[in-house]
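Q: What would this chain look like folded?
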Amino acid sequence: MILDRVRRGVVDHSPDLICAFDAGGIIQFINDAGLTILGWRRDDVIGHSFIEFLHPDEIDRAVALAMANLEHIQGPRAGAPYRLRCADGSFETLDVGVTVLDGLLVVAGRRMYDHELMDRVLDALTAGLNLAEVVGLLPGFDLWRNPTERCTLRCQDDNGDAIVVGSTLPDLLTGARIDEGSVWARAIAAHDHEDTELDLEAFAEPIRAAASEERLTGCRVRAVPDPRGLAPALITVWTTEAGSPIEAHSYPLAMIGRVLDLVLRYHQSTSALRYAAQHDQLTGLLNRAGFFAAVPPAGSDTPKTVLALDLNGFKPVNDRFGHAAGDEVLREIGRRLRRFAGEDAGGPGALVARLGGDEFVMVLVGSADQRTADRLASAIAEAVAQPIDIGGHSVTVTTSVGLALDAEGHREIDQLLIEADVHLYEAKTRSGGR
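A: My prediction, written as C-alpha cells:
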C-alpha cells in the first residue's frame, strides 16, 4: 500500500509525461504533466491509439519498439527522441523511455531542453548573431534544471569589453574581481578548470557581503580558455539553502563549458575569415571588397572626401631590389597611411584601403571640406616621400593624389572614385610621376 502511494505520488508530481497503453496501443492513462506538455484534455487522449499522437515519420519505429517490449523481445529502453503531436498541431520532441508494467507499456517522456537549446545556439551561430546574443543562451542549460539557482557567464567581446549574461547578480559575483586564491582564480589555474567554494567566509568582504545580501550559500565556477587569447570565460553557479545541491550542477556546467568552447572557437574562426575576406593580406588595410562594404552608401546624407593615391617610383624598387623589397615598401606605405586614419589624426573618421598593386584610397567619412582635403593630401604626400630602409638600402617613392568631394552624401562611391582618378592622373602628368 505504501509503495503504491509512493508510485502514485511520483507519477502525479513528475514534471515529465507519463502514460500507459495496452497491447492494442490504446492509451489507458496519462498524467497531468503529460497533458500540460502536449496541451490535450484527458478525454482527448484516454481511449485513443498512441499512434494518433506520433509524428508520421516516427510511427514505424515506435510501433516496433512497443511490440518488442510487449513481447519481451527487449527490456526497458530509455533515451530515444520522439516527436509527439500537440493539441495546437505542432510537435514536441521528448526524450522517451519505455518499460512494461502489469501488461501495460509505460512511457515516460522528458522535454529535450538541451536539444532545443543546442538547436537555438546553432541557429544563432549560423544566422550571424553577435557573440553576446549567442552566449546569452548558454546559462539556460543550467537554469532549466535548477530554476531557483543563479547561473552567470562572463566573457569578453573582440574589443575586450565584458559580456555578462544569465542571472542578474552584482558584478562582483560574476568573476569581475579575481583575487589571488579566490574560487575564480583557482578554477582558472585548475587542471580541469573547475573549483567550488561553499564557505562564504573564504570570500573577500565585498563579495561575501554581496553574496549574503542575495541569500547565496556558495558557488561553483568553471573557467573556459578563450582561443582568442583573451582572459578565460567564467561560468559561475551560486546555490541557495532551498536550492539544488552543488553536485546537481556538474553536468550542466560541463555542458555549458563545452558549448561555450565551441561558440568561442566558431566566433574566432568566422571573425578571422571575415577579416581575411575584407582586408589586404600584405598591408592589413581594407581590400576592395572591405572598402566598398565600409563606405556609407549613396543617399545616407553622410559627406565624404575621397583621396585616390598612386605611387611614383615603385616599379624601379621592384626591378632593382626584387618583389620582397617591393612588398616591404607597400607595407610601410600602408603603415604611414594608417596613421592618418586613426583617432590620433585629429580629423574626421577615415577609411584606408589598398585597391590593388600600388593603388591606395582614403575616404574621410563625415567631411567634404576642400581645405581639409588639400591639407591632408599634402601631409600624405610628405609622409610617403620619407626614405624607407630596405635591407640597409634607402629607397624613396612618392605619391600623386586625386580628390573628389561629396558634400551632400548622395553620390555613389564608384562615381567619386572615377572623379578622384581623373584628378590623380592630372596630378601625375603635372609632376611627371610614373
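The CA atoms of residues 65 and 98 lie 9 Å apart.
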